Automatic annotation (TrEMBL), chain A:
It is found in: Cytoplasm. Belongs to the TMA20 family. The keyword Protein transport does not apply. The keyword NAD does not apply. Involved in translation. GO terms for biological process: formation of translation preinitiation complex; nuclear-transcribed mRNA catabolic process, nonsense-mediated decay; ribosome biogenesis. SUPFAM superfamilies: PUA domain-like. SMART domains: PUA (SM00359). Residues 91-172 form the PUA domain. This is Translation machinery-associated protein 20. One of its GO terms (molecular function) is RNA binding. GO terms for cellular component: cytosol. Keywords: Cytoplasm.
Length: 181, 206
């Protein structure tokens, strides 16, 4: 999604009204219920969220010049920096060490990288197809990517071949380096 | 409640991912200067424990010795590549030059055009804005004859611009970059000033 992304892709910037800001926050909480207790710490009431509309109908939400979450269609997707602050709240899967290199260069995640000894998938029933997951790596504390499941986690386990997770956002991609000024 | 994650000042990743960034050497230096605790945790006392460390790494990794070795090799190669690229870029930066040109418009009016800045990762638009407010004049970015971006400042501010760009480059650690000043109005200049010779600079040439 962010393979190519630069300032030229920005169409408009606008400040978000505080009422809409409130709905945004409640939407985030409804998507990730565990965020509820820390949401006011993550996004203080007084902070000013800015909406940046970009190419391909991507919308970024920033606070103080830092991208906190973004939206392509309906669902709000947190950015990695936002995830790092409170990683417990999101559905997480883990890849093995061998896969890190490829993930960091923006590849989709293949099933074997998730099912091998170093990888970790949740027990059944797991996560649905098309849901967003945080991708962690073996022996690492922080998430390195955010992806969208191309098949459900149970399917990944049984099929164990081909693309399992579509890459949305990873460490070092243009969104990660994105800087408003 | 919230976690504070340190990000590497060199590669911007969380430090545990520095090994994959291809800039490991500089990352290590940065981390050892900025966060000794984390450095010790990640890289240990490498000098006397390198062997133990390697064994440790293998033990804690699940992908097997052969693959780990391959990975290590790949990472080394990536690092070498990255270093080469950086060196090349630096050489390119050092060998390129900034051209500051003063051109005459009508009678006693001048513009100053600066080109060749894009190599140095300077945001032209922003710099133009700075100049505009610094000199209280009009300033914009436009394409020149060679289809390259240049900053055009209205008004005779050649010397000030030169000084400012010198300090700007110095800040970036690029002190030895050449600045070429083309001034079509000076008498002493050799007549090789191509482009502007046909402008109406008769005033000064008398």
């Amino acid at each position: 999604m962010f393979k190519k992304f630069s300032k030229e892709d920005i169409h408009s910037r606008s400040k978000v009204k505080s009422s809409i800001q409130r709905t945004l926050k409640s939407k985030l909480v409804s998507q990730y219920p565990q965020l509820e207790e820390v949401i006011d710490e993550l996004i203080p009431k007084k902070s000013q969220i800015e909406l940046i509309k970009c190419e391909d109908k991507i919308q970024l939400y920033t606070v103080d010049g830092e991208v906190y979450f973004f939206q392509k269609f309906d669902e709000l997707i947190p950015s990695l920096k936002f995830v790092h602050k409170f990683p417990q709240a999101y559905p997480t899967i883990q890849v093995d060490r061998g896969a890190i290199k490829f993930v960091l260069s923006g590849a989709n995640i293949m099933c074997p990288g998730l099912t091998s000894v170093g990888g970790k998938l949740p027990d059944a029933p797991g996560f649905e197809k098309d849901s967003f997951v945080i991708i962690n790596a073996e022996n690492k504390e922080n998430a390195l990517a955010i992806g969208k499941l191309m098949m459900s986690t149970e399917e990944i386990k049984s099929i164990n071949k081909g693309h399992g997770v579509e890459m949305i956002h990873h460490l070092g991609d243009p969104l990660w380096d994105f800087n408003l000024d | 409640m919230l976690q504070e994650v340190v990000y590497c000042g060199i590669c911007s990743y969380p430090p545990e991912y520095c090994e994959f960034s291809g800039k490991l050497k500089r990352c290590k230096v940065w981390l050892s200067e900025n966060d000794t605790e984390l450095y010790a945790k990640l890289y240990g006392n490498e000098i006397d424990e390198e062997v133990a460390n390697a064994a440790n790494k293998l033990g804690s990794s699940s992908i097997g010795e052969a693959r780990e070795e391959k990975l290590e090799k790949d990472l080394l190669r990536l690092q070498a590549k990255q270093e080469n690229r950086e060196q090349r870029e630096l050489a390119k930066k050092l060998s390129s030059k900034v051209v500051i040109k003063r051109e005459a418009r009508t009678k006693r009016k001048f513009i100053v055009a600066i080109s060749g800045l894009e190599v140095f990762e300077i945001d032209m638009k922003k710099l133009a804005k700075t100049f505009a407010s610094k000199f209280a004049t009009g300033c914009s970015v436009s394409k020149n004859a060679e289809k390259k971006d240049e900053i055009v400042i209205q008004g005779d501010v050649l010397e000030e611009v030169e000084k400012y760009i010198h300090s700007l480059l110095e800040e970036k650690g690029l002190k030895n970059v050449k600045l070429e000043i083309i001034d079509s109005q000076k008498k002493k200049k050799k007549p090789t000033d191509e482009a502007n010779s046909n402008n109406n600079n008769n005033n000064n040439n008398k």
